Amino acid sequence: MYKSEKQTIFYVLGLYLSSTLLLIATLFATYYFYKQDELIHAEREILKEYSSTLEEKLLFVHENSDERYEYPRFEHFKSAIYDIDKKLIFSTLDTKIDSLEPLGDSHKQPII
After folding, report:
1. What's the pLDDT band for 110 if we cut at 50, 70, 90?
2. SS in 3 state form for 33-96?
3. pTM higher than 0.85
4. Which burial class, exposed, middle or buried, applies to 107 when counting CB atoms under 10 A from its CB (0-12, 13-18, 19+)?
């Protein structure tokens, strides 16, 4: 076999291997980001469900209680309630929250 034939074979083999590895890496990256987005969406739906449950319980307590209120407690998550001036009323959280301001400028809604 001639030297030029060997060079051509190695060149084609290198091109084949690099393009195959690039394709596999692209497929894995696409799959990874798809699964990551899917997981974030699922977690967001769970949090919406928890938020809805908490809102329903608080509304029930507000409408059907006397002067003493018992803040609802949940097995799956912890929560807190703040007044309009962002002063803590009651909390089941383990840590203190330093700021109730949104992290980014894209969130202009108040935290409930």
Report:
1. very low
2. HHHHHHHHHHHHHHHHHHHHHHHHHHHHHHHHCCCCCCCCCCCCCCCEEECCCCCEEEECCCCC
3. no
4. exposed
